[in-house]
Amino acid sequence: MPARKGKRTTRAPRRAAAHQAAEAVGPAARHRIRVTVNGRPYEAEVEARTLLVYFLRDGLGLTGTHVGCDTTSCGACTILLNGEAVKSCTMFAVQADGAEIMTVEGLAKDGELHPVQKAFWEHHGLQCGFCTPGMLMTAYAFLQENPHPSEEEIRIAISGNLCRCTGYMNIVKAIQHAAQEMAAR
């Protein structure tokens, strides 16, 4: 059957269908992991094949980390793992055993937005908001390493994160402003 205009000709399997298919093959190995997420310790039993992004979202209820592509292409799932920005859609939860994790929910402290969050708000560094958690975490990690970046360095730092709405200009402005705010602290 020919593809219809504007319709996808292939469809990625849904998680539930993939889970059911895997269960039909046999039970998955389970592992106990301990992680600290946003300063809070967690212990959980996870299947060896559970991606970190799904553990965070489904296991811990931290839905700020988005699932966009499952292939590390978009960066919507970016978190900090032991202080380093990583894409959680291609990392197994068992690989994070013993790690310190920070998600977008961990940026704000005591109800006060982090300067990166404030800058995105004030400089319109978001539109639909889907890429925003990953952009925020990437920007946060980048500014920890490079507190006085050039525009070119910012563009390179966020090049692994896709935004289909903004054209990046306001995201770059927001990161520049956040750098200034963080340096003034």
Can you walk me through this structure?
By secondary structure, this protein is of the alpha+beta class. The chain folds into two domains: 28-106, Roll (Ubiquitin-like (UB roll)); 115-184, [2Fe-2S]-binding domain (DNA polymerase, domain 1), CATH 1.10.150.120. The protein is 35% helix and 15% strand. The chain has six helices and five strands. A five-stranded mixed β-sheet has the order 2-1-5-3-4, sandwiched between helices. Helix 3 crosses helix 6.
CATH architecture label name of the largest domain: Roll
Overall CATH class of the largest domain: Alpha Beta
Question: Strand-and-helix sequence, N→C?
Answer: HEEHEEEHHHH
- The CATH topology assignment of the largest domain is Ubiquitin-like (UB roll)
Q: How many helices does DSSP assign?
A: 6
Question: Could you give a short description of this structure?
Answer:
This protein is α+β, with helices and mostly antiparallel strands and 185 residues long.
Which helices and strands occur, and which strands form pairs?
Blueprint: H1 15-25, E1 30-37, E2 40-47, H2 52-59, E3 78-81, E4 84-87, E5 100-102, H3 115-122, H4 132-145, H5 151-157, H6 169-184
Parallel strand pairs: 1-5
Antiparallel strand pairs: 1-2, 3-4, 3-5
Helix pairs in contact: 3-6
List keywords for this structure.
185 residues; alpha+beta; DNA polymerase, domain 1; 5-stranded mixed beta sheet; 6 helices; globular; disordered N terminus
